[in-house]
Amino acid sequence: MLLARYGNCWVGKVERRKLIASMLVLTVFGTVLLLPPLVYVFNQPISHSGIPQIVIYLFGVWLLLILGTAALARQLPDEPADPAAEREAD
């Protein structure tokens, strides 16, 4: 991102696109992890500290998706307020 300050206007755009693509991959991966065929693998009569294994799996995936989304959103640079003004500045 430091290069964007020194005149390379494409660096911020490429980084933003990579982060957006990473968010898409995270969404697809999370969807796959929550599909019934994979969830049913953890639907066993096993409990850890009295909590069924499937509940631990579902809440674990849910927590990892939230943490991954928060980490990616924190790195995402702000979108310019007016795209036309940005083109005039270049």
Euclidean distance between termini CA atoms: 17 Å
Instruction: State the secondary-structure class.
Output: mainly alpha
Number of H/I helices: 5
**Strand arrangement in the largest pleated sheet:** 1-2
> Topology as H/E string?
HHHEEHH
Question: What's the number of domains?
Answer: 1
Beta-strand segment tally: 2
Portion of residues in beta strands equals under 5%
Bin the helical content: 55-70%
Short note summarizing the structure:
69% of the residues lie in helices and 4% in strands.
Q: How would you summarize the topology of this molecule?
A:
Layout: H1 2-5, H2 10-33, H3 36-39, E1 47-48, E2 51-52, H4 53-75, H5 83-89
Antiparallel strand pairs: 1-2
What can you tell me about this protein's structure?
The protein has 90 residues and is mostly helical. It is elongated, with a radius of gyration of 20 Å. Helices cover 69% and strands 4% of the residues. The protein contains 5 helices and 2 strands; from the N terminus they run αααββαα.
For this entry, give a set of tags.
90 residues; 2 strands; two-stranded antiparallel sheet; single chain; mainly alpha; 4% strand; 5 helices
